[in-house]
Amino acid sequence: MRKKELELLRRKLMEKKEDIKKIVRENNREEKDFLSTDVGDIADVASDSVERELLFELNDNEKRILGNVEDALQKIESGAYGVCEKCGKEIEIERLKAMPFAKFCIKCKSQMEPHRK
Ligand SMILES: [Zn+2]
To answer: Ligand 1 centre from 21 Cα, in Å?
Structure first.
């Protein structure tokens, strides 16, 4: 994979991660506004607590995606990104562009999830 493509995909993954974290932050804010109107410095609440609460706030699908995004980012760091976990071949670049946290190539994925018709 070209470096430029890898960088593009890395950026997409970071954006996805931020999107998911934003969901949590918004959920938290609504809750805090509702529960405590007279507590100051809500904005100063450590982002650490957001990280810790993250897994409790997310639904299963979001947790799964976040996990996959984290995995993909780690693989980029270690140079193992873009390789199918099943057959070991490179995952199609078009597939990665559409779904940068994909773990399997189209062929393996379609074998795992037979089309229901
Ligand atoms: Zn494969």
So the answer is: 30
Kindly give the distance from the C-alpha atom of residue 94 to the centroid of ligand 1, in angstroms, as a whole number.
14
Regarding the domain with residue range 3-36+43-112, which homologous superfamily does it belong to in the CATH classification? DksA, coiled-coil domain (1.20.120.910)
For 33-80, the pLDDT digits (tens) are 655 555 455 555 555 555 555 566 788 888 899 999 999 999 999 999
Per the listing, tokens 């070209």 go with: 2
CA of 87 relative to ligand 1 center, distance in Å: 4
**How far does the centroid of ligand 1 lie from the alpha carbon of residue 105, in Å?**
4
Rounded Cα distance, 55 and 63, in Å? 7
Instruction: Give pLDDT, residue 57.
Output: 73
Name the residue among 89, 78, 84 with its Cα closest to residue 99.
Answer: 84
